[in-house]
Amino acid sequence: MLSAVPRPVIVRAPSKVNLHLAVGDLRDDGYHELTSVYQALSLHDDVEVRDSDELSVAVQGESARVVPTDRRNLVWQAAELLAERAGRDPRVAISIAKGIPVAGGMAGGSADAAAALVALDELWQLGLDRADLDEFAARLGSDVPFSLRGGTAIGTGRGEKLLPVLSRNSFHWVLALAKGGLRTPDVFRELDRLRSEGEPPRLGAADELMHALAVGDPHQLAPLLGNDLQPAALSLKPELRRTLRAGTAAGALAGIVSGSGPTCAFLCADADAAVAVGAELAGAGVCRTVRTAHGPVPGARVIDDKTER
Ligand SMILES: C[C@@](CO)(OP(=O)(O)O)[C@H](O)COP(=O)(O)OP(=O)(O)OC[C@H]1O[C@@H](n2ccc(N)nc2=O)[C@H](O)[C@@H]1O
Ligand SMILES: Nc1ncnc2c1ncn2[C@@H]1O[C@H](COP(=O)(O)OP(=O)(O)O)[C@@H](O)[C@H]1O
Questions:
Q1: Which pTM was predicted?
Q2: What is the reported pLDDT for 199?
Q3: If 19 and its partner were Cys, which of 37, 46, 140, 177 is the partner (CB 3.0–4.6 Å)?
């Protein structure tokens, strides 16, 4: 009798934008204390896992060339962690279809790590519960727990301690993808340098922003978006100032640098406005390429095939 070959598992994981990113002081462990309100966006990566003779990683799509395919890739580390827990060898071929810009401040690597955890739990039938997955996620990176959970959430600690945030309606975004990336540690370091020289203004509490999310009104939300890392990202990539100006000139309600950048995220009044802003921004020559997206969307989840929407 033929033994059944387990089918590959495909998991889709979202990108994120930080609607509010308040950065506190540098801790002894090298991380900064944060308050981050995350929203998961429809721009996504798909991660496929299948049984194989050895662990391997392949990457296609958005800037695939610059993504490592060895132990430096977070999906490799996720596979080793889960295999150790399951007491088995990580013999699995992992294939990543990237839609999320690499080193773009949109948590692409974290999305892939979260997707790999969910996919391998399914492939290897480990039956992990939410708490187990959260713990593995936090070991892989500060943003990975949010990539698992998705939706809209507030993160504290180094960003990994999450609580859901009530958010009504969908919000519509235009994303301006930059030429080249920014390394997250460099951006935090630049913020520390700017703070040692003077005091770039620090964000206050997120209460008003949370209220605007609960109401679901993009006009109310727009002026409340804020990111303490933005001055540092602009200091390292001054050309982003032009991108931000061009987005609001094109009709966006507001524009911010996404997380550690250099992607700029523009909040728009509705889906039609996002298409119009995207078209104008694409013609303005202020970024590498433009995408539209909406949020919130779910966290990493198994899908039947990559054509699923
Ligand atoms: C800034 C944020 C905002 O959501 O994401 P990105 O915009 O890069 O996607 C996150 O805090 C990034 O999360 P993630 O990319 O998972 O970072 P990690 O791998 O945990 O940390 C990479 C490095 O960033 C710095 N780091 C990260 C998180 C934190 N709270 N304080 C820090 O100082 C540290 O130098 C750390 O060594
Ligand atoms: N699966 C992955 N996808 C993208 N980058 C990855 C991945 N695994 C590890 N990396 C490394 O992480 C760095 C940060 O990538 P990414 O997560 O896309 O950006 P950000 O931290 O700005 O959101 C990349 O430059 C790359 O070297």
A1: 0.96
A2: 79
A3: 37
